[in-house]
């Protein structure tokens, strides 16, 4: 799971028990890192980790605070007395958010994750997001290696017979880990995709030098499924969660407020 997905999960979960447990683990890690922070410039990586963990703890505390408040508003400060189902009656026109926007907007994504989890199909969404994170990372690392190759006059990539490049090996391991978690026969749940597309991906991971395009075909297949399969984006657009999302984004017009 990528850091963005993890943070989104923290923002939408209703489990105070899980939030408290995660906060405790984060706090312990913060304490350990602070004991290693000597203030020297070479401790930059420690300071960066500390900053990230402090941010995660803040996200958790904000979510816990909202859950404990309850009262007249929900977790995103929307009035709790509104009859959201009334806005789903036939003939009511709602703003239609494209999938691309839903995936890139943090607020929309959090609602979509919540919806997909409610129908037990969150694996498709998490796969897409994890692949996107891998692709961006791979693209950057390969670009850096190519730049280094130009500067040194050598070959930044790995050829047959050469000692494996640690960066490339890590990229390959990360790609295979995503495959195993979502597409392999032992994956649970296993995404239902074209077997030929999946086999082609496995062959590339096992036999080729890492390339940021490895997952392109599989990711496009999942994107198409998320966009068109009735229970995914179309189903989300017909849910109460979607109406609440539009309200939070100020894209909702209450039918009762329209003039005749």
Question: Any key phrases for this structure?
Answer:
single chain; 260 residues; mainly alpha; Regulator of G-protein Signalling 4, domain 2; 11 helices; disordered C terminus; RGS_subdomain_2
Structural account:
- It is globular and about 65 Å long.
- Residues 71-76, 159-163 and 255-260 have low confidence and may be disordered.
- Among the domains are: 1-69; 122-228, Regulator of G-protein Signalling 4, domain 2 (Orthogonal Bundle), CATH 1.10.167.
- It starts with a helix and ends in a 12-residue tail after the last helix.
- It is built from eleven helices and no strands.
- It is mostly helical and 260 residues long.
- α5 packs antiparallel against α11 (240-248) and α6 (122-152) packs antiparallel against α7.
- The longest helix has 31 residues, at 122-152.
- It has helices at residues 3-12, 16-36, 44-69, 99-104, 106-118, 122-152, 166-182, 195-207, 216-228, 233-237, 240-248.
């Amino acid at each position: 799971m990528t850091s963005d997905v993890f943070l989104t999960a923290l923002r939408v979960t209703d489990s105070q028990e899980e939030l408290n447990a995660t906060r405790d683990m984060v706090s312990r890690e913060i304490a350990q890192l602070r004991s290693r922070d000597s203030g020297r410039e070479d401790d930059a990586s420690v300071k960066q980790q500390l900053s990230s963990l402090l941010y995660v703890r803040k996200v958790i505390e904000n979510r816990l605070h909202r859950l404990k408040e309850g009262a007249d508003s929900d977790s995103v400060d929307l009035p709790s007395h509104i009859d959201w189902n009334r806005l789903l009656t036939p003939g009511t026109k709602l703003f239609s958010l494209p999938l691309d926007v839903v995936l890139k907007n943090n607020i929309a994504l959090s609602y979509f994750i919540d919806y997909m989890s409610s129908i037990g199909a969150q694996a498709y969404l998490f796969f897409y997001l994890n692949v996107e994170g891998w692709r961006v990372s791979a693209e950057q690392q390969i670009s850096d290696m190519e730049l280094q190759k130009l500067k040194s006059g050598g070959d930044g990539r790995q050829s047959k017979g050469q000692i494996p490049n640690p960066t490339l090996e890590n990229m390959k391991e990360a790609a295979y880990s995503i495959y195993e978690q979502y597409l392999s026969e032992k994956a649970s749940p296993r995404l239902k995709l074209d077997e030929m597309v999946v086999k082609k991906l496995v062959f590339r991971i096992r036999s080729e030098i890492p390339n940021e395009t490895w997952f392109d075909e599989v990711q496009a297949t999942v994107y198409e499924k998320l966009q068109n399969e009735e229970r995914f984006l179309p189903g989300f657009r017909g849910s109460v969660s979607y109406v609440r999302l539009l309200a939070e984004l100020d894209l909702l017009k209450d039918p009762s407020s329209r003039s005749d």
